[in-house]
Amino acid sequence: MPNVPGLRSPYAKVGRLVYFGRMLDKLRLHAAGQLPPDYMPNLGKGFDSRCCTFLRVGYDDLKTHVLAHLAADDTAVLAWAELHGGLRSDDECEIWNNFLSKRGWRDDAAAILVKRLTESGLTGTPALTLFDYLDFDEGRDPVAARAWEA
Q: Residue 13 is inside which H or E element, if any?
């Protein structure tokens, strides 16, 4: 996939959480007609679904809120999610971040990672996780940037 302007790395945090900002980017880009068609079948699924489950908010509820408040910054949207789903502890957020950012590395998603890297012609990259794959696929190098440390 090409680099999508306005779609951040899954490693980027909003508050204490990885991935959440990327999900918001996808919602906003889709609403603006700027999300590439390849992304649309997975809206609300995969990492989006896991993120909403972690936050204990429905994807459709989050989508409705984001679209009704397009000017709201990401921290305000996260605050809304925490108000409706409950605040997570620092330990829960650490576990979430580590789980999601390492998905595909020596776990049951490893085969999916290999498949995606092969399909995208990225088998020579040092991608170890699905986050790495997403970044490489969109033209970012998370290894050189040490994105997991940001």
A: strand 13-14
Look at residues 84, 101, 118 and tell me which one is the last residue of a structural domain: 101
Q: How confident is the model at residue 1 (pLDDT cuts 50, 70, 90)?
A: low
Query: Which residues, listed in sequence order, are joined to residue 18 by a DSSP beta bridge?
Result: 13
What's the predicted TM-score (pTM) here?
0.94
- The tally of domains found in the chain comes to 2
Same-domain check for residues 18 and 81: yes
Kind plus residue range of the DSSP H or E element containing 87: none
Same domain, 69 and 119: no
Whose structure tokens read 């040490």?
146
Lowest mean pLDDT among 80-89, 100-109, 136-145: 136-145
